[in-house]
Specification:
Layout lengths: L1 E7 H7 L7 H5 L2 H9 L3 H23 L10 E4 L4 E6 L2 E9 L3 E8 L4 E8 L6 H10 L6 E5 L5 E5 L2 E2 L3 E7 L2 E8 L2 H20 L1
Antiparallel strand pairs: 1-5, 2-3, 3-4, 4-5, 6-11, 7-8, 8-9, 10-11
């Protein structure tokens, strides 16, 4: 399983006041609140931890097939400026974040299983964030591949009405979109690389 989350930091500054009364207490554990208050850049730490929680949450939803809202059940531990661990019950998810002055993109996987392919990009038309992000993902898998969500809202890929055994996650916020794909074994990795080469070859010959 894999999850990813994006935070447009410029938008976060205007959308949410993390310093308002009760915000930190509602979203973060006591240990995380200490981490935030002791950090050199509290604003960045808030949204880094939030993106870690959201990325891990997407993994849990895929597994449990149930949506819920309880950010404090996801305990974040930073192991570096861009790496961390999120603990949910007895499960642990490893995270890796890409951080710039304007954005955060975090990817979470279960115990570093498999290799990850990801893309992060600017979304020019924010009103079409979801469509643009999904189309970017689908372009990696060639023709006749569709993205459909089940009753819980978990997305899956289908080719010719057959569900593909691919673990992936999409995300978008503000001016950015992105996705991540997990290659849990060498066969799946080679299959994906072949699909990608075919796609690139098709575009080159057009």
């Amino acid at each position: 399983m894999i999850g990813n989350d994006i935070v447009d930091l410029r938008l976060a500054k205007t959308q949410s006041n993390w310093q308002r009364s009760g915000f930190l207490e509602k979203q973060f554990t006591k240990e995380e609140q200490v981490e935030i208050k002791q950090s050199e850049n509290a604003f960045l730490t808030v949204w880094l931890l939030w993106s870690m929680k959201e990325a891990a949450y997407k993994c849990v939803v895929q597994k449990q097939q149930k949506r819920f809202f309880n950010p404090k059940k996801f305990q974040c531990f930073l192991t570096g400026t861009k790496r961390g661990t999120v603990v949910f019950g007895t499960e642990r998810y490893q995270t890796k974040s890409s951080i710039s002055k304007d954005s955060i993109h975090t990817i979470a996987t279960k115990e570093n299983r498999g290799e990850v392919t990801s893309e992060f990009f600017v979304v020019d038309k924010q009103s079409f964030q979801s469509n643009i992000t999904n189309n970017k993902l689908l372009s990696f898998f060639g023709e006749n591949v569709a993205l459909l969500k089940n009753a819980v809202g978990v997305p899956y890929l289908y080719k010719n009405n057959t569900k593909l055994a691919v673990s992936f996650s999409t995300s978008h916020h503000g001016s950015y979109g992105g996705f991540a794909i997990l290659h849990e074994d060498e066969f799946k990795k080679r299959t994906f690389q072949t699909l990608r080469k075919l796609r690139e070859s098709t575009f080159t010959n057009c």
